[in-house]
Fold:
Amino acid sequence: MICLGIESTAHTFGMSVVDDKGNVLSNVKDTYKPKAGWGIIPMDARKHHEEIADSLLKNALEKAGKGEEDIDIISFSQGPGLPPCLYAGMNFSVELAKRLGKPLIGVNHCIAHIEIGRLTTKLKDPVTLYVSGANTQIIAHVSGKYRVFGETQDIGIGNALDKFGREAGLEFPHGPKIEVHAKGGKWIGLPYVVKGMDLSFSGIVTDATRKLKQGESLRDVCFSLQETTFAMVTEVIERALAHTGKNEVLLTGGVAANKRLTGMVDIMCRERGAKSAAVPWEYCMDNAAMIAWTGIVQHKAGHAPLDLEKVEVLPRWRTDDVDVVWI
Ligand code: AMP
Ligand code: MG
Structure:
């Protein structure tokens, strides 16, 4: 069985062909880049996605060595995400499903990050740290659902880094630049904001920006920003491990590319006799292979295809709204 997956929740429009053994036959994407100093303008991102869609499909099929007739099912990221971006993916998917007469599966983007992580790292039942631009959640599978044990109360950790990077005049995406600037920095102190199991990052960005403007070095502020925010998520993951009794940690989302973050979580895990693994880079950032693979997982578990006349996007779809019948 072959699934074509389509990702379009934010800046990345991606298409991927995956088979039911978990082989990724192709995984192509094109990313909308906001102009310097700006965040995503959702309508511009939608326009980008709509313009690139046909050539991406051609590219994805060619790279996989497949034709449209080989596609058995189509899956798309139905939410959560920016509504204009989600509509670009949904409209394209629905049209294609109608034209090819194939079933269409709606996939939750956050759950797809976890499923591609389980596939690629071989972790079986991890506590997942999902740290992307917009999202920061600590998730574990308990009683039939991926439950959110802790999450940000305001912006995601990636957006926090990006926001600071913008203020500091760095280039987008700012997370990797901050990682480089942080090397050899020293601790200057920033607010540490863990509330129960939840987190908050926006005040930390405000304080980091103020300290930079008051003359602290970019290196020391980048270092302190990473140390503070990464220690906060590590603390919450450790409590989720203790609470659930699980002994694996999966790191996924764009920020999981950060070596200081993975290193910090790894130290905590080793001290508890647990193990941690980060999703390989190409599947860490937003990508369509995770949507295609989760489409297959859901289809095999008997998820009913969507009614093509009634399908809608789900911009606020929560991780813990989905019945995870495949575990
Ligand atoms: P995603 O939303 O999953 O596509 O991830 C994008 C986010 O990951 C952006 O906010 C980036 O700044 C962030 N990011 C990417 N690489 C790194 C890195 N090495 N360190 C920290 N953040 C990163
Ligand atoms: Mg994501």
User: Anything to note?
Assistant: The chain has two domains: 2-113+286-321, 123-283. Residues 2-113+286-321 form a domain with the Nucleotidyltransferase; domain 5 fold (CATH 3.30.420.40).
